[in-house]
Design a protein that fits this description.
The complex is a heterodimer of chains A (356) and B (461). With 356 residues, chain A is mostly helical. Helices cover 75% and strands 4% of the residues of chain A. Chain A has 14 helices and four strands. In chain A, α7 packs antiparallel against α10. The longest helix of chain A has 30 residues. Chain B has 14 helices and 15 strands. Chain B has two domains: 184 residues, Response regulator (Rossmann fold, 3-Layer(aba) Sandwich), CATH 3.40.50; 163 residues, Response regulator (Rossmann fold, 3-Layer(aba) Sandwich). Chain B is globular and about 75 Å long. In chain B, α4 links the parallel β5 and β6. Classes of the chains: A mainly alpha (356), B alpha/beta (461). At the A-B interface, α1, α2, α5, α11 and α14 of A face α1, α3, α4 and α6 of B.
C-alpha cells in the first residue's frame, strides 16, 4: 500500500468520524435528550462562542478583557428587544422580528461598539486595560437599568412562547423550543469555530500573534498596530454579542442590570479561554463546556448546600491550572506528544536493529 | 528532524485517532437519552377543558398543553417547587423556606392535606437562584421538566416572577403566592400568577400618605429607592399618591440593588433636611440606610418597606430603627403581646421542631410559615386536585382567616376583580428598646382597593 493510499484511507476515516460526531450533536442529541440536557449543552455552546471571540483578543492578541459580559448583555438586549417590541424611529417601523433576522443587527452593533472601545484601549496595556474593561462591565448594567423599558416596566425583557418558538420552516422533529435553541447555539458555535480557524491561519491571525509577542518588531515589518488591535476588539465583541443573542433563546429573557452577573459572565468567558487553552482554535469551545458542566456537577454533587458548590468549582479550577497549565488542548497535545514519542521510540527499535 | 510529509502524516494520524475516539465514545453515549416522546403541542388548542369546572371559571384552559392538569400528583404525593435566593446578597430571604418547609412537615406529620376527600403528602423542591432572574427561569424549567412539579409556591422576587410569567402562563402551571407586592400581578393577561399575602406596595404607600396627611400634611419627603423594579414600584406609587396633597417629594436617590451601599445617597438626602424619609429598599439596605440617617444627624419621620420587617434587619439597625413605620399583614413573632396567641404558639412549637436552626422571632420565617399555610388551605378548599381547579380556588378566596400568622381580625379575599391577597394589614411602628413592633391605629381593610388605587398602566405592564 502506497503512502498516498494510506493517506486517502485516513482521510476517509477522518471524514466519517467527523460526520458521526456532527450527526450525533446536530440530530441525535436534541431528539433524544430532554430539555434540561439540551439547554445545558446550548449554554455551554454560547459560552464557548463568546470565549472563542475573547480568545482572539486575549489569547492571540494578548489584550486582557474582563468586560465582555457587557457585549454579551448588549447582544442579548438587542435580540430580545427586536423580537419583543415594536419601534418606530425616524419614520422606520421595525420590531417583532424573528430570531435569525436580529443576528445581523447584533453583529454590526457589537462590532462597532467593540471598535469604539478598542480605540481608547490602544492607550493602555495589561493590567490597566483589564481595569478599563472592568469599568465597562460595571457601567453597562447602570445604562441598562436606566434605558431599557422591558417587561413589567423593569429592565428585564421577557419573551413570549410564540416569539421563542422555532420558525415554521424548521423540521418538526426539532421544533420544540429547547431544540430550536440548541440547534441555533450549535450552528453558531460551528460557524464561529470555522471562522476562528480561518482567521487564525490567515495573515490577520499571524499579525495578531506578532502584535502580542513583540509590538515593536511587528510594527517594523509593517503591521498596522492600531488596526490589528481594534479589529481584534471588534471581532471579540461581535462574538460575545452573538453569544448574548443565543442566550436569549436558552434563558428566555434578557436581563443585564445586575452588576455581579455581568462581571461573573465576563470572568466565565476568561475562565473558559484559559481552561480550554489560550490561542488555540477549539480550546475555548471546550472551555465553555468545562465551565458549564463542572459548575453543574458541583451543584448536583452537593444539593442544598449553596456555598459548597461554588467553592468546589473554584477548587476544581485551581487543580486544573496545576494539572493542565496550557489548558485542555495543550494537555491533549502533550499527551499525544508523549504517545507519539513512545510509539516512535518503539518503531525506531523495530526499524533500526541493533548495529552489528 | 522529521520531514514534512512524515509530520503531516503523523498529524493526520493524531487527528484521525482523536476523531475515532470521540466517535466511538458518542456511539456509546447514544445508548442514553431521556427525552419523552410525548411532546405537548402548544399550537393547537385542546379539544375540551378537562376539569376546569363551570363555564364561568376565571381560568381559561383552552390553550393549555393537553394532559398536564394533574402533573405532579403521583399516588398520594403532591410535588411542588420553588426558586429562592439561598446564597448571595439576598440569602436572608431563604428564611422563607424554613417557615414554609416547617409548615409542610407539620402538615405531613398530621396525615397530610385532604383534597377532594383524599389525603396527600406534600413534597417541596427548592432551587437556588441567588435572586437572579435568568437563574429563576432555569430553575423553573428544571422544576417543570425534571421534577414535574404540580405548582410553584412563593417564588421570591418581582423580576424573578416577571421572568417566568410567560412560561407559567403558556404551560398552565400555577405560580402561587409569589413573594412580591408588585402591582404587575394584577395584570389580567397572566391568570396563572397570583401574588402572596405581602401588602401590595401601593396600599403601603397610601396608608403612610394617609398617616402623613393626618399628622404632618405639608411634609417634605426624601426618597431612597432600589434601582430595580422593586424600587420603581414604590417610587411610582408614591408620586401617584402625593398628587393633590400638600406633600412634596424633594429628592429621590437610587441605590444599587446588587449591594447595600447607601451612605452617599442618604447623606445627600439628609442635606435636604426633609421631614420624611421614605425607604423603598429591602434587606440589608434598610438597616444601612437607617444607620446612615442617624449618623448624618437627620431625624425625620421614616417609613420602611414592609419587606424589611424582620427582627434580623431591625437588630442590625439597633437604635437607628426606633420609631420607624411600616406595615405587616401578619402577627409580629417578636412582640410579647402575641405570645399567648394560639396560632403563634403553634408556629413557634412546630418551627422549633422541624427547623430548629430557624430564628423564631424573624418575621420572614413567619411569612414563610403563613404562605405554606395559605397554600395548604387553598388545596383543601379546591374541589379537585388539578392545576386549573387549584388556580381557580386561589383566585376566588373567600374570607380566609386564621391562616398561619394572619392577623386574627383580617380576612383575605380574591375575586375576578380583586387579584391581590394581602389587602388587610396593620400599620406598625418599631420600638428599638422593646425590640418589637407595635400597631399604630386600627387594622387597615383595603380589600379590593389595589386595583382601584393603582393607575392601570402600572398594573398592565
Amino acid at each position: 500500500m502506497t503512502r498516498t493510499q494510506q493517506q486517502a484511507i485516513r482521510l476517509v476515516i477522518a471524514v466519517i468520524a467527523v460526520a458521526v460526531v456532527v450527526q450525533f450533536f446536530a440530530w441525535y442529541f436534541p431528539t433524544h435528550y430532554g430539555p434540561t440536557d439540551t439547554r445545558l449543552f446550548a449554554s455551554a455552546m454560547y459560552i464557548g462562542v463568546a470565549a472563542m471571540g475573547l480568545n482572539l483578543l486575549t489569547g492571540y492578541n494578548g489584550q486582557v478583557s474582563i468586560g465582555h459580559g457587557a457585549f454579551f448583555g448588549i447582544g442579548a438586549y438587542i435580540t430580545a428587544l427586536l423580537m419583543d417590541h415594536q419601534y418606530s424611529w425616524f419614520g422606520l417601523n421595525f420590531g417583532h422580528q424573528n430570531f435569525l433576522s436580529t443576528i445581523p443587527t447584533v453583529a454590526v452593533v457589537t462590532f462597532v461598539i467593540g471598535a469604539l472601545v478598542g480605540f481608547p484601549a490602544l492607550r493602555v496595556k495589561g493590567l490597566y486595560l483589564a481595569l478599563v474593561t472592568l469599568g465597562l462591565a460595571v457601567v453597562f448594567p447602570d445604562l441598562a437599568t436606566r434605558f431599557v423599558k422591558g417587561t413589567g416596566g423593569t429592565s428585564l425583557v421577557s419573551l413570549t412562547s410564540t416569539e421563542l418558538a422555532a420558525p415554521r420552516w424548521f423540521p418538526s422533529q426539532l421544533s420544540a423550543q429547547d431544540q430550536w435553541a440548541y440547534t441555533m447555539a450549535f450552528a453558531f458555535a460551528l460557524l464561529g469555530l470555522v471562522a476562528v480557524w480561518v482567521l487564525a491561519r490567515s495573515r490577520f491571525g499571524r499579525s495578531l500573534i506578532a502584535v502580542r509577542d513583540h509590538e515593536a518588531a511587528a510594527a517594523s515589518v509593517g503591521i498596522d498596530l492600531a488596526r490589528t488591535k481594534v479589529t481584534a476588539f471588534a471581532l471579540s465583541a461581535m462574538y460575545a454579542g452573538i453569544a448574548g443573542s443565543l442566550s436569549v433563546l436558552v434563558v428566555q429573557n434578557a436581563s443585564g442590570d445586575d452588576k455581579l452577573v455581568t462581571f461573573q459572565t465576563s470572568i466565565e468567558f476568561l475562565v473558559a479561554v484559559v481552561i480550554g487553552g489560550t490561542a488555540t482554535v477549539v480550546g475555548p469551545l471546550i472551555g465553555g463546556f468545562a465551565v458549564v458542566y463542572i459548575q453543574k456537577w458541583a451543584t448536583d454533587a452537593f444539593p442544598n448546600k449553596p456555598i459548597i458548590s461554588p467553592a468546589t468549582f473554584g477548587i476544581v479550577l485551581i487543580v486544573l491550572m496545576y494539572v493542565l497549565p496550557d489548558g485542555v488542548v495543550g494537555g491533549g497535545r502533550r499527551l499525544r506528544g508523549l504517545a507519539g514519542r513512545t510509539l516512535r521510540a518503539r518503531r525506531r527499535r523495530d526499524v533500526n536493529p541493533a548495529p552489528l | 528532524m522529521i520531514d514534512r510529509r512524515a509530520s503531516r502524516a503523523i498529524g493526520m494520524r493524531r487527528g484521525v485517532a482523536t476523531a475515532l475516539v470521540v466517535a466511538v465514545a458518542l456511539v456509546g453515549a447514544a445508548c442514553g437519552g431521556n427525552r419523552s416522546t410525548a411532546k405537548p403541542s402548544t399550537s393547537s388548542p385542546a379539544v375540551s377543558t378537562a376539569g376546569s369546572g363551570s363555564s364561568a371559571s376565571l381560568i381559561d384552559t383552552s390553550n393549555c398543553p393537553p394532559n398536564t392538569d394533574t402533573t405532579g400528583v403521583s399516588g398520594d404525593t403532591i410535588t411542588i417547587g420553588t426558586s429562592v435566593a439561598e446564597s448571595g446578597t439576598y440569602a436572608p430571604f431563604s428564611a422563607i423556606l424554613d417557615g414554609e418547609q416547617a409548615y409542610i412537615d407539620y402538615t405531613n406529620a398530621n396525615g397530610g392535606v385532604t383534597v377532594a376527600g383524599k389525603k396527600y403528602k406534600i413534597n417541596l423542591v427548592a432551587k437556588d437562584d441567588q435572586y437572579v432572574a435568568s437563574q429563576t427561569v432555569n430553575n423553573v424549567n428544571s422544576l417543570l421538566n425534571d421534577n414535574h412539579v404540580f405548582a410553584l409556591l412563593d417564588v421570591v422576587g418581582t423580576k424573578n416572577n416577571l421572568a417566568i410569567r410567560n412560561l407559567v402562563n403558556t404551560q398552565c402551571v400555577p405560580d402561587l403566592y409569589a413573594a412580591s407586592g408588585a402591582t404587575q400581578w394584577g395584570n389580567h393577561q397572566y391568570p396563572w400568577l397570583i401574588g402572596s399575602e405581602l401588602v401590595p406596595y401601593p396600599l403601603e404607600v397610601r396608608r403612610f400618605v394617609d398617616y402623613l396627611e393626618q399628622t404632618k400634611p405639608d411634609a417634605t419627603i426624601a426618597v431612597l429607592r432600589a434601582n430595580d423594579d422593586f424600587g420603581q414600584s414604590y417610587a411610582d406609587t408614591l408620586t401617584q399618591m402625593v398628587k393633590g396633597t400638600k406633600l412634596k417629594i424633594v429628592q429621590t436617590q437610587q441605590y444599587d440593588s446588587a449591594g447595600s451601599q447607601v451612605t452617599t445617597q442618604v447623606n445627600s438626602l439628609a442635606s435636604t433636611k426633609a421631614d420624611v424619609f421614605f425607604l423603598g429598599a429591602t434587606l440589608l439596605a434598610c438597616p444601612a440606610a437607617l444607620t446612615a440617617a442617624q449618623n448624618a444627624g437627620w431625624h425625620p419621620i421614616i417609613y420602611m418597606s414592609g419587606t424589611c420587617v424582620s427582627k434580623v434587619l431591625f437588630s442590625i439597625a439597633g437604635a437607628a430603627a426606633n420609631g420607624v413605620f411600616s406595615v405587616t399583614p401578619l402577627l409580629d413573632p417578636a412582640a410579647p403581646v402575641n405570645a399567648s396567641n394560639p396560632a403563634m404558639q403553634l408556629y413557634r412549637a412546630q418551627v422549633a421542631k422541624y427547623k430548629p436552626k430557624a430564628d423564631l422571632d424573624d418575621g420572614i420565617v413567619g411569612y414563610g410559615w403563613t404562605t405554606g399555610a395559605l397554600f395548604v388551605k387553598t388545596l383543601e378548599s379546591s374541589p379537585s386536585l388539578t392545576r386549573s381547579a387549584v388556580m381557580e380556588t386561589a383566585r376566588t378566596l373567600k374570607d380566609v382567616s386564621g391562616v398561619g400568622l394572619e392577623i386574627p381580625a383580617a380576612k383575605w379575599n380574591t375575586s375576578a376583580n380583586d387579584w391581590f391577597v394581602g389587602e388587610t394589614f396593620q400599620f406598625i411602628k418599631y420600638d428599638a428598646n422593646a425590640k418589637h413592633t407595635d400597631p399604630v391605629g386600627s387594622l387597615t381593610n383595603d380589600d379590593g382597593q389595589t386595583a382601584k388605587l393603582t393607575p392601570s398602566e402600572l398594573i398592565n405592564q
